[in-house]
Design a protein that fits this description.
The chain is an all-beta fold and about 120 residues long. It is about 0% helix and about 40% strand. The strands form two sheets. The chain has a five-stranded mixed β-barrel with strand order 1-3-2-4-5. The chain starts with 12 loop residues before the first strand and ends with a strand.
Length: about 120
């Protein structure tokens, strides 16, 4: 067998193209070949967090899962210790009936747009 090195390492920054405008600090999901857009509710395709605001068609650096602590934007109240999923517009929400947890809230959020620490899983 030949030697192998991964193209990218988990938890590191990776550059993708955007299929829609993304907001820095929010979750992004795969939307096509090496392309991302804002993560939707309970997305199974979340790859990480956009580094900066980016318009459609431009390149964006993404801090990838599954490792690291990220500062993410809540879509509503979240208890510390709760498993979280992606929500609309790349925000996060409590797992609830969701099936695709992306992290664990390390602190509580009281309302929409609160920014909290989340450990990627």
């Amino acid at each position: 067998m030949a030697d192998y090195l991964p193209k990218f390492t988990a938890g590191k920054a990776v550059t993708f193209n955007t299929s829609a405008a993304v907001i820095g600090g929010r979750l992004v999901a795969v939307t096509g070949d090496l392309t991302v857009g804002p993560a939707g509710a309970d997305s199974a395709a979340v790859v990480g967090v956009a580094s900066v605001d980016t318009i459609v068609g431009d390149a964006v650096t993404v801090y990838t899962r599954p490792s690291g602590v990220q500062r993410l934007v809540a879509s509503g109240a979240i208890a510390a210790g709760a498993k979280v999923i992606s929500a609309t517009a790349g925000k996060i929400a409590t797992l609830g009936a969701g099936a695709n947890p992306i992290g664990i809230a390390l602190e509580a959020a009281a309302a929409d747009l609160d920014v909290i620490d989340v450990l990627f899983i």
